[in-house]
Amino acid sequence: MSDYNNKTAIITGGGSGIGRQTALSLARKGANVTIADISEEAGEESVRLIEELGRNAIFVKTDVSNVEDVKAYVKKTKETFGSIDMFFNNAGIEGKVTSLADYPEDIFEKVVDINLKGAFYGLKYVIQEMLQNGGGAIVNTASNAALDGSPGVSPYSATKHSIVGLTKTAAGEYASQNIRVNAIAPGPTATNMMDRFTQGSEEVADQVKSGIPANRYGTPEEVANFVTFLLGSDVNFTNGAVYPIDGGITSV
């Protein structure tokens, strides 16, 4: 517990799925947690679950595409807990499933605003605080769609490729100042986003699973366990890496 005890983490998209499970994983290890999420109901529920574990948490309603909201979750965390030691830059949306030539421009812009701009704003303002604090650990959420093409979700894939670029660049810029920046690339995971991808169809879900060597979706808990590991000091020499968590998809 000592590695995380009384340290502070910010988690964007912490109201559900991988974000919530990571918040709970860090809290079990003793961390204070800020939940930044667009959904007040979901965010407050994550806080309640953390407090049930006897740990401290706050919720900051956040649209990550709004730079003032990003500044607000950074400021509120610093005011409440005194420092920012860990950052899970996780919030994102999948957008619409359709071919590139037919993709609606307004939805393309929304995906870029949330997935790319939101991640950039988070990195920018959290890193500023970590520099004042003597360092920290960051994990960005990319996707296995960042490692290959992903037909039907071109803006999602493009923004997740961009997360890889931001991760490697930030790692190179700040490694000498004790800031680590890594990324995860989850494959199909049992979250609400995956349900939206498959539109709730068991047939489509089975088709997706058939393309996974493990023959199943990952779980949010499995991803959260690895994020927690990457945020800890046991891997202090690990920086600028992108880790698939996809049941073997990228191995074939």
Give your account of this protein's structure.
This is Glucose 1-dehydrogenase. Belongs to the short-chain dehydrogenases/reductases (SDR) family. GO terms for molecular function: glucose 1-dehydrogenase [NAD(P)+] activity. Keywords: Oxidoreductase. Pfam families: adh_short_C2. 47% of the residues lie in helices and 15% in strands. Helix 2 (40-52) links the parallel strand 2 (32-37) and strand 3 (57-61). The chain has a single domain (8-189, 220-244), classed as 3-Layer(aba) Sandwich (Rossmann fold), CATH 3.40.50. It has 252 residues and is α/β, with parallel strands linked by helices. Strands 3-2-1-4-5-6-7 form a seven-stranded parallel β-sheet, with helices on both faces. The model has no long low-confidence stretch (mean pLDDT 94). The N and C termini lie far apart (37 Å). The radius of gyration is 17 Å and the shape is globular. It has helices at 17-28, 40-52, 67-81, 105-133, 154-174, 192-198, 202-210, 220-231; strands at 8-12, 32-37, 57-61, 86-89, 136-141, 179-186, 242-245. It is built from eight helices and seven strands.
Give me the secondary-structure topology:
Blueprint (H helix, E strand, L loop, with lengths): L7 E5 L4 H12 L3 E6 L2 H13 L4 E5 L5 H15 L4 E4 L15 H29 L2 E6 L12 H21 L4 E8 L5 H7 L3 H9 L9 H12 L10 E4 L7
Parallel strand pairs: 1-2, 1-4, 2-3, 4-5, 5-6, 6-7
Tell me the domain tally: 1
Q: Taking strands numbered 1, 2, ... along the chain, how are they ordered across the largest sheet?
A: 3-2-1-4-5-6-7
Could you give the count of β-strands?
7
Please name the CATH topology.
Rossmann fold
Please trace the helix and strand order, writing H or E for each element.
EHEHEHEHEHEHHHE
Q: What is the second-level CATH architecture?
A: 3-Layer(aba) Sandwich
- What's the main sheet like? 7 strands, parallel
What is the straight-line distance between the termini? 37 Å
Strand fraction equals: 15-25%
Q: In the CATH hierarchy, what is the class?
A: Alpha Beta
Residue-averaged pLDDT = 94
The CATH fourth-level homologous superfamily: NAD(P)-binding Rossmann-like Domain
Given as residue ranges, the uncertain stretches (5+ residues, pLDDT < 50) are none
